[in-house]
Amino acid sequence: MREYENMKRIFKINIILLGIALIAGCGDWTKPESIEIEKNSIEISNPELYAKYCAALREYKTTDHKVVYTTYDNVPTEAANGSEKLTMLPDSIDFVQMMNLEISETHQAEMKQLKETFGTRFVVRFSVKDCKAAYDAYVESLESEAEDAAPAVPTFAEYFAAEFEKVTDAVTLYGLDGFTFAFTGKNHDGMTAEQQAAYAAEQAADFAPLKAWIAANSSKVLFLEGNPQYILDSQVINAASYYILPTRECRSVGELGLFGLNAFTSGKLPENAKLIYSVETPSFIEEEYLVGQFVLGEQIPLASDWLAKDASFPKSGVAIWNVQRDYFNTSGVVYPNVRKAIKTMNPNE
Fold first, then answer.
1. Residues 323-346: pLDDT tens digits?
2. What residues contact residue 200 under an 8 Å CB cut-off, 6+ apart?
3. What is the residue-wise DSSP string for 67-79?
4. d(CA 338, CA 68)
5. Tens digit of pLDDT for each residue in 200-213?
6. What are 229-257's pLDDT values in tens digits?
7. How far is Cα 280 from Cα 337, in angstroms, rounded to an integer?
8. How do strand 297-298 and strand 293-294 relate by DSSP bridges?
9. Secondary element (H or E) of residue 125
10. Helical (H) or strand (E) element with 293
């Protein structure tokens, strides 16, 4: 009930804010850069109403609703256009994953502003698969550069621990709300006893730093990205706030459902598990024409429509990768697909 009332309040205030913005200068809506100006003019012209909207939005984000998680390419240089400004993102986005661990002072200030004003939360990501690939490349480079003596090569465990620490240090340094741990995993049901033992040992080593971090950071949010049913450690599974399913390359909503159903019916997740489905923002590079596409259309609108419908297994939100691509369009409204997804999944927001 509280969620519904908050959604109605935000919807009503949005209508009023939109009217004020149109009166303030409707001609500027064709210019994407003017959106931030319109926000500021509303804040100045009717601060009381704007404050009510922000308070309602912050409260709404604490309720049970379909969340929007985005990945954002935070470039270290000064913003060249609106897509490089965090303050241009839609207010109702719940989580923003900063793709680069080094966050500029400008983006730090913008993160603080969005967190305090709209309750937006920020995370970073660590990928086991990417770490292993980076280690192999690092060892190869050391060996190729060595002339006579064998190079001093760190063990993978040492390299892994150092890379993991970089991510968790970033959480602390920038006051982030948590992080995403990406672990693809394997279906171990058909493995031999020997294979299962080796898999369990490898997985235990991969999760050891994470479990130590979880024990010391119970107040932080943890996303597990991958197939959660392939994780053997129930402590890790139960510690996750959300599970991001690896559905970016799916070609239909039917495939999204298959991933969700397999995770939910595995019997390895908590009953209240929150499953988030990954989609890609369509690429504007001609050679990448399939990125962000289902067979019948773009992933974001089709997935959000599917997520809005009832189901016998959890549909707790969407993870939109490379959100900055959605800034550019011919409609004159920035981030149109993300905005539409938010409205579709939570229609009264």
1. 999 998 777 789 999 999 999 998
2. 232
3. EEEEEE---SSPP
4. 9
5. 999 999 999 999 99
6. 999 999 999 999 999 999 999 999 999 99
7. 11
8. antiparallel
9. strand 121-127
10. strand 293-294
Residue with tokens 């400004």: 85
Long-range contacts of 197-200 (CB under 8 A, 24+ apart): 199/232, 200/232
Considering the chain, what is the average pLDDT of its residues?
87
- Give the angle 244-221-165 at the CA atoms, nearest 5°: 95
Say which DSSP state 89 is in: S
In the three-class reduction of DSSP (H, G, I as helix; E, B as strand; rest coil), residue 273 is classed as: coil
161 near 212, Cβ under 8 Å?
no
Residue type, 218: S
DSSP strands (E only) in 299-340 = 317-321
Those residues whose C-beta lies under 8 Å from the C-beta of residue 345, and which sit 6 or more positions away, are: 65, 66, 68, 304, 307, 308, 317, 318
Output the six-digit token pair for 228.
Answer: 């959660």
Q: Which two tokens stand for residue 45?
A: 């012209």
| Residue partners of 20: CB distance under 8 A and separation at least 6 | 42, 45, 46, 49
Rounded CA-CA distance 27/8 in Å is: 29
How many residues does this entry show for the chain? 349
Task: State how far the Cα of 265 lies from the Cα of 257, in Å rounded to an integer.
Answer: 12
Quick one: pLDDT band at residue 27, thresholds 50, 70, 90?
very low
Spatial distance between the Cα atoms of 95 and 222, rounded to a whole number of angstroms: 12
For residues 61 and 55, the answer to whether their CB atoms sit within 8 Å is no
Report pTM. 0.86
Per-position b or e across 248-273, b if 16+ CB within 10 A of its CB: bebeebeebbebbeebbeeeebeeeb
